[in-house]
Amino acid sequence: MALMITDDCINCDVCEPECPNEAISPGEEIYIIDPNKCTECVGHYDEPQCQQVCPVDCIPLDPDKVETEEELMTKYYKLTGNTPA
Q1: What region holds the 4Fe-4S ferredoxin-type domain (predicted)?
Q2: What is the pLDDT of residues 11-61, one digit of tens each?
Q3: Is residue 8 part of a domain?
Q4: How many domains, the chain?
């Protein structure tokens, strides 16, 4: 499941540099997450880094982008060029 940024975002800029997949970028009003790049940090970290640094807790799972751990790992491999061990 990809993550999303809600309207509670205060544009503090802390989430964007934490994303290992460069899935977070400034939108017209708030930061946005590209669901095609978001792996919830699967393959990189144990927990989504953007959620860890967000001071207002505005980065929940996107209920419209449901993905399994396996699907997230496959996306990680495609984005990074890494191959399964």
Answers
A1: 1-29, 31-64
A2: 999 999 999 999 999 999 999 999 999 999 999 999 999 999 999 999 999
A3: no
A4: 1
